Amino acid sequence: MGFFNEMSVTGLTAVPVAPEPDYSDSEEENHQARANCRLPCTTPEGLIVPRKLANPCLESADRRQLHRELKFNAKTGRSVLNQKSELQRELERRRDTQQRRQAQLVTDTNRSSFERALEERLRRAEQPPVQIVDDSRSPCDVTPEFMKVHAKVRANVNTLS
Q1: Is the pLDDT score of 29 beyond 80?
Q2: 16 in helix, strand or coil?
Q3: What SS3 state is found at 59?
Q4: pTM score, whole prediction
Q5: CA–CA separation, 105 vs 83, rounded Å?
């Protein structure tokens, strides 16, 4: 019974209980764990007084840290969950496009004529070349070229014979 620190009372007999292992790092968690390991309170008649069960979610250090950060961000006015209304998002998008247009307009007005000419040449070079359409052919003339040549050769052969 040397390593048993506490005794648990179940019914009429006392059963030795080993202490729960301590995996936590903070004193606050250690204190809460020790408070939960106490012997159950009993009435003078020997009945165990019911005790509210511990909520592991509320006692979780990660949950408390997250809750602390959310409260701080709410107090400072930062929205960490990106909960903007559709209207706010649309207004921001329009404001951004308007600012980009104004910045483009400012850069366009500050450019010299040489820079404008260079940009125009670059734009023309990037465009696909326009194919020149041969207007000598009539749209109703759909006979292939080799048929015309063949007809001319046949006519020459017939005249020679």
Answers
A1: no
A2: strand
A3: helix
A4: 0.28
A5: 33
- CA dist list (Å): 99 to 103, 105, 108, 137: 6, 10, 14, 52
More confident residue, 144 or 34: 144
How far apart CA 94 and CA 101 sit, in angstroms, is 11
**Tens digit of pLDDT for each residue in 113-131?**
888 899 899 999 998 877 7
CB-based contact 16:4 (threshold 8 Å): yes
Contacts of 6 (CB under 8 A, 6+ apart): 17, 19, 37, 39
For the chain, the domains span 1-51, 55-81, 86-126
- Angle 18-23-28 from CA coordinates, rounded to 5°: 100
Q: How many residues appear in the chain?
A: 161
Of 33-47, 76-90, 117-131, highest mean pLDDT: 117-131
CA 156 to chain centre: 78
**CA angle at 97 for the pair 95 and 98, rounded to the nearest 5°:** 65
What pLDDT digit, counting tens, does each position of 100-113 carry? 999 988 888 888 88
Q: Are 8 and 39 in contact (CB under 8 A)?
A: yes
